[in-house]
Amino acid sequence: MVSITRPLPLKAAVAAFVLSVVALLSGAGSAYADWTSVGDQQLEGTAVVFRGTHNAEGTCSIPGSATAKRGETVTLREVAFDLATCSILYDLVRTSGVQDSVAAEATPGATDADASGGGTVATTEPETPTAWQAGYLRVWYDDPVGIDVSVLRLDTETNGCSYKWKRKFSWLSLDGWYLDKSGTDHPGATCSSSWVQSGRWKAEIFGFPLCVPRWQYVWTNYGSDSNLSYDKVKITSGGTLTASWSDSKGSTLGCDFLLGHVKRLAFESPW
Q1: Contact 195, 166 (CB under 8 A)
Q2: pLDDT tens digits for 145-200?
Q3: pLDDT band at 20, cuts 50/70/90?
Q4: Which residue among 11, 15, 166, 257 is least crowded, i.e. fewest CB within 10 A of its CB?
Q5: Would you kindly state where each structural domain of the chain is located, as residue ranges?
Q6: Are the C-beta atoms of 71 and 97 separated by less than 8 Å?
Q7: H or E, element range at 74
Q8: How far apart are CA 202 and CA 211, in angstroms?
Q9: Stated pTM of the model
Q10: Helix or strand holding residue 11 (H, E)
Q11: Which band of pLDDT confidence, cut at 50, 70 and 90, is reported for residue 74?
Q12: Sheet holding 178-181, edge to edge
């Protein structure tokens, strides 16, 4: 059972939020630009566009996916968002080497919810164990000063018909965030692959007058109850790592403007 961490007092949360606004106005951070000016920006990698659909609330649900090869780390960072067409532009960068440090997941002031498991696939066929292979998907939201305000990390590992998985979700409580909803993890495996999908994880922060037009909450949402689209990472015994996700985005004017989506996937050392 995951405990619910309530927000900080309003005064502390407002102070943290104002610092983010000041950083944005001064040009710091990685908040996305207007869609029409994307072509003028210098991208580090390849421009990739994912398109989704409007849901009943008027926000956008935008699915996406990526693959990674052995020995590389794939990072996608949001550059622009267009509400009218439910489109997000990412800067996709492939770098040599694997960034899989668990210590890097620790964020001061964060509250964590972890889970893990594993097992063996029932089969009547003779099992042929192979070397353990592991991979991960890390999905997070950056504020304008580059702080990860909420993070979801999914890891999966396979060895023939045996598999392991783990999930870590964290949110920055010192910045006023708290856990509003949590879902059920969905691990699975065959004798040639393993995977783990997240349930719905939703962290929220109270909105302020500066968040016009939304005065209630700003949230980061992983997974979706409506279309059963979840953040997922899958690895096969043949050496293929794939990841998929569903972004939720609702405004270019409110506090959504302050948050940018980032994804990272790579093979990692077995644990």
Answers
A1: no
A2: 888 888 999 999 998 888 999 999 988 888 778 888 888 888 988 888 899 998 88
A3: very low
A4: 11
A5: 10-31+44-121+129-268
A6: yes
A7: strand 72-82
A8: 19
A9: 0.80
A10: helix 10-25
A11: very high
A12: 178-181, 201-206, 217-222
